[in-house]
Amino acid sequence: MDRSELESLPSHELHDRALSAARSRLDLGFLWSLIKAVPVAHAAEGNIEEADADIASLSALLNDALHSGEGEVAEGLRPLYIEYLEAHG
What is the pTM of this model? Predict the structure, then answer.
């Protein structure tokens, strides 16, 4: 898919596609990038407490990464999903 096609997809679809591609490629680098980006996305939406909790707890961070295709966090992570799918989708 080209960038314009990716841009037209809903955030949860970008999330699902990016995670599927990363899993099939065993791309821990992307998953780690996602884990690091989730607290930033939470902070950008104004939820500093959630960002702090993510940083303090790796289990929360992993859970957030796996569910980062939902809600406002998914919207904040759209550029990361699109960039990854352009390169590897």
Answer: 0.67
Residue 77 near residue 11, CB atoms below 8 Å:
yes
Q: Which two tokens stand for residue 22?
A: 């990363």
Q: Rounded distance, CA 51 to CA 43, Å? A: 6
pLDDT surpassing 80 at residue 1: yes
C-beta neighbour count of 44 within 10 angstroms: 15
HEC profile of 4-54: HHHHCCCHHHHHHHHHHHHHHHCCHHHHHHHHHHHHHHHHHCCCHHHHHHH
Q: Which two tokens stand for residue 17?
A: 């596609």
Model confidence at 44, in pLDDT bands (50, 70, 90)?
A: very high
